DNA sequence: TTAAATTTTTAGGTAAATCTAAAAATTTTT
DNA sequence: AAAAATTTTTAGATTTACCTAAAAATTTAA
């Protein structure tokens, strides 16, 4: 059984490991809003418990056990987000902090029943996949909107940026999950993208387009 | 903002204060499964924060602020219990420990929306009243089953014992909240009580009868 | 391939919440 | 109203998760 803090470290390491193999001390410290010295302390503790592999100065990787623990926390976080949005009518930009607390509630029974109550959702309100109780993720096939060519179309199925500002912006533009879109133009000048929705056209910056994930429905 | 531990102390003191005015160090220690010395330390801290009034060797009482904080935790605990039973199909004897964790989640928005989602319940699955968001309790008029005379009838509206063993026992006998009952006999020998339900008769010990709360529907 | 910059670790400390053992105050009993 | 029993507090440690400052290792640049 881990403390909340240990769980948060494991989760952070898990997410950082999606980009790099060996996760660096400084990266963890920045993510967790703490100091590198504190991270070193905790890493040693997690290594003693067999949750991470650690070689001095070489960063950490999660062990099988550590990874399973992290995935379980991710599962809980995402299920609670679905609960907050689907049942309590929170907006997708309001759920992160509360889920950050709820994810640490320890009861296997609770999460299984919650999962069932929610209808075994496969993705959270931002389109991130929810692992099943065995830690397995459904395969997802995303492509970044920025990579689409003029004329390509697809469905918005996720975002790779969870900041409230970004999510509110998308909401305002009508770019929410499930929306059908087609790229109608890409501006030479700044790379901004013009998008056709069922009922309107909107223009988004390159930066925004980078963080919208599309599941293409056939095409090119 | 209090730590989980501080919240638990406040809640414990609140419940103990329902029976005695000045709450004793030892009583808190026993309830919280800790040592009196630890309680003294924490009491000092709570006193410094203005959450309890404390005179050495004289026990503690909650201040207005302390009491409000405690009531807020009680509110959260009971709302989560309703959620667990009504929405996730937990039994009334299974919810306590999980609610004990959930009660510490800090989000006013969450609790208000949960309250609404649950239909603003007035009582938890054990019949305990749920304070509203201003900390006010609906007036309740309970009488212990043991105090009823032969012939008296009423509705089971609460229990004053939350142990799993007790609750499972009641469940098995069919003595659940909302059931109409009438006292058909009281045994001289051991004070056990015979109860008529709509479809059957059951016999319960004095000890059990002490912990069943009845709202009388007119009578005697 | 040294020097400089960066990253990481070590050493030594702090605050929160706990503990044990012993001292002090209060309450109960005789 | 002493003596005995009980309750409560103090004193001094421990553990967890932090911190700062300085040392050590690694990486990057000159």
From TrEMBL, chains A, B:
Transmembrane segments: none annotated. Residues 1-63 form the HTH dtxR-type domain. Keywords: Activator, Cytoplasm, DNA-binding, Iron, Manganese, Repressor, Transcription, Transcription regulation. InterPro entries: DtxR_MntR_Metal-Reg, Fe-transptr_FeoA-like, Fe_dep_repressor, Fe_dep_repressor_sf, FeoA_core_dom, HTH_DTXR, Iron_dep_repressor, Transcriptional_repressor_C. It holds the Pfam family Fe_dep_repr_C. It comes from the Bacteria. The keyword DNA-binding applies. Gene3D superfamilies: 2.30.30.90, Iron dependent repressor, metal binding and dimerisation domain, Winged helix-like DNA-binding domain superfamily/Winged helix DNA-binding domain. GO terms for cellular component: cytoplasm. It is found in: Cytoplasm. GO terms for molecular function: DNA binding; DNA-binding transcription factor activity; protein dimerization activity; transition metal ion binding. Homodimer. Belongs to the DtxR/MntR family. In the presence of manganese, represses expression of mntH and mntS. Up-regulates expression of mntP. This is Transcriptional regulator MntR. It comes from Pedobacter miscanthi.
């Amino acid at each position: 059984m881990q403390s909340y803090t240990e769980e948060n470290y494991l989760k952070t390491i898990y997410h950082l490991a999606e980009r790099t193999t060996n996760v660096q001390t400084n990266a963890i410290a920045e993510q967790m809003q703490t100091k590198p010295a504190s991270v070193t302390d905790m890493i040693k503790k997690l290594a003693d418990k067999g949750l991470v592999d650690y070689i001095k100065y070489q960063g950490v990787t999660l062990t099988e056990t550590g990874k399973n623990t992290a995935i379980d926390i991710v599962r809980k976080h995402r299920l609670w987000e679905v609960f907050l949005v689907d049942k309590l009518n929170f907006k997708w930009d309001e759920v992160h902090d509360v889920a950050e607390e709820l994810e640490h509630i320890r009861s296997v029974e609770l999460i299984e029943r919650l999962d069932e109550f929610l209808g075994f959702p496969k993705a959270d309100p931002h389109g991130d996949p929810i692992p099943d109780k065995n830690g397995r993720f459904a395969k997802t096939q995303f492509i970044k909107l920025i990579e689409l060519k003029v004329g390509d179309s697809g469905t918005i199925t996720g975002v790779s940026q969870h900041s409230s500002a970004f999510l509110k912006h998308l909401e305002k533009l009508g770019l929410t999950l499930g929306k059908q879109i087609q790229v109608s133009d890409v501006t030479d000048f700044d790379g901004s993208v013009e998008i056709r929705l069922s009922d309107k056209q909107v223009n988004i910056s390159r930066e925004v387009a980078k963080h919208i994930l599309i599941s293409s429905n056939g095409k090119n």
